[in-house]
Amino acid sequence: MDQRYATHPQQLRGMDTAELRSTFLVEDLFVPGEITLVLTHHDRVVLGGVVPAGRELTLPADDALRSDYFLERREVGIVNVGGTGTVTTDGVVHTVPNGACLYVGRGTREVVLADAPGAAGTADAPADGGAQFYLFSAPAHTTYPTVLVLPEEATVRELGDQLTSNRRTLRQYIHEGGVRSCQVVMGVTQLHPGSMWNTMPAHTHERRTECYLYVDVPQDARVVHLLGEPTETRHLLVADRQAVISPPWSLHSGVGTAAYSFVWAMAGENQSFDDMDGAPVTELR
Predict the structure, then answer these.
(1) How far is CA 220 from CA 30, 83, 185, 255, 258, in A?
(2) Over the stretch 28-73, which tens digit does the pLDDT of each residue have?
(3) Which parts of the chain fold into alpha helices (H)?
(4) Which has the closest alpha carbon to 83: 66, 101, 96?
(5) Are 111 and 89 spatial neighbours (Cβ–Cβ below 8 Å)?
(6) 0.90 cut: is pTM over it?
(7) Closest Cα partner for 148 from 214, 90, 97?
(8) DSSP string computed for 218-257
């Protein structure tokens, strides 16, 4: 498990491009036939990418967690950004299509991720449309039931305006009014054709760490992700299926060279979606 230590906003001022990317960007999260995990010490969040590629992969209890099994003191949200797959939790099989979200509660001893039957490839030659699971995990103090939410079952919010190039559909899966959790809040946002900006006007929320996984980014396109304090911004150039760790003190917004989607997930002090501190674009520096 790769570990990323917590940062202070003043550190940002002395970072070059390589330091920014190694601190806040997760580039190689999806490796065929493997589970890749990254622990950020901001709110002890763990990000994961799982590409079964014809195998059954079991979520491990990494030494950094000091636990007998991964979810002994944790919960996890899982969004499938690939073809249909299965997640088996303590023997119960959940079929998870593209765009669906599975919440798995604390105390689940075994989590096995795989391609759906008949869709499996191999580690060297993944099947077209094979499953690709994105994991977001946080510490949990109690147990909530494991729940699967399909895209059409999510809470949908239409945001933005075509005139400001940020028309987008937001699907909330794990949140106060949907699937219950201790800390995790999770959903997917899809930009409409012709819109490029996400989360604009920008904001911070000192009470939660948020992570973005950018998906559906064309191979020859990039997303310019803004981070840092509103008065001291920096940027990252982000490709498809790369994730950004956004500390509580950092804004998180971006503009793409083409339309894209992203999985957003948060954990921290509260779960209120609207608990944010606005950063008007006229005040950004």
Answers:
(1) 19, 22, 31, 15, 9
(2) 999 999 999 999 999 999 999 999 999 999 999 999 999 999 999 9
(3) 17-24
(4) 96
(5) yes
(6) yes
(7) 97
(8) -TT--EEEEEEETTEEEEEEE-TTEEEEE-TTS--EEEES
